[in-house]
Amino acid sequence: MNKGFHRRERRARREFFFFSAISACSAVIISLTLAALFFIAPTLAQGNEPTDDEVNAIAKQLYCPVCENTPLDVCPTQACTQWRATIKEKLALGWNEQQIKDYFVQQYGMRVLAAPPAQGFTIFVWILPPIAFLAGAAVLAYYLRSLRHPAPAPAAAPPSTKSTAPESDDEYAKRLEAELNKRR
Amino acid sequence: MIEEQTAPPAGAQKSKIMLGWIAAWVIMIAILGMVAIKLYQVTLGPISSGGAPDFTLTTFDGQQISLQSLRGKVVVVNFWASWCNPCKDEAADLEAFWRAYKDRGVVMLGVDYVDTETEARAYLAQFDITYPNGPDLGTRISQAYRIKGVPETYIIDQNGKLVTNIIGPTTFQNLAAIVEPLLK
Q1: Model confidence at A43, in pLDDT bands (50, 70, 90)?
Q2: What is this model's ipTM?
Q3: What DSSP line would sit under A63-119, residue for residue?
Q4: Which CATH class is domain B56-183?
């Protein structure tokens, strides 16, 4: 009787430990799964969401026509806030920088670009400054060279038998000669 | 003849320098002229008379409407934006005007200036706007009309001539007072 009782008790204990172990393992697995959902999932979502730095890296290359001379990354108006949201939206969709800039040009025109492309009339924006710089450097170099090597004096007039001096000077010279002769 | 061939090099150099200076001045004057024209265009106000500049509006629904195709009708072109608070003041009046006059030979077109599509659609839904609206792609229409801000409204008669412009928000009564005489 006692023997049978102890056997049942041992079996009950084994079953208890067995189910306890299963329950503990299940609890650990469920906890780990919940933890993963709680901590890892937001990390994944955050990984897809573009950061403000990424948005501003593109925004600073754009100007909103409403707010003249204010780059998009620092413009406080509602229009610019909406534009930045659009950049973020496009980045989240996987668009690259060039695609986003092309989209803004298509929507709002070439004037939204901080650096206009070197084509059409805007090519002057790119070529004129270096030309002006080079021209200035050339003028300066020419001026400095002329200071160092002054232009030679005009060649002496070829000797001529005929005096080029006016007649009145001749008369004056003659009178001077005469006066000097008198005093000698 | 011999003298011409062996002309003093100093003279030739001088004339080259002179040509260079003339070219530099011509280029500089041309650039200044172009800048002056651009500045002059900027200072010009919105167009207020004469033939209305033609344009084609692609609506948010993908429909294409050209101003040219609306000859024979009075056209009211309204420039607006979702970020523009004064535009909200006139939105209900514009829609009411459209509903009152659409069967009397009047067409209303909304041109969404420098806006983002999501917010623009939300704005149209908020004010239950049913007349055709579309973005000002590339800001071409607003540049043609030389608008200075939003809202601005342009009224064009049946012959495509600009009757008047309204700078700032307008009302049902104001529009009716301008359009009624055109319908007689």
Answers
A1: very low
A2: 0.74
A3: B-TTSTT-BTTT--SHHHHHHHHHHHHHHHTT--HHHHHHHHHHHH-GGGBSS--SS
A4: alpha beta
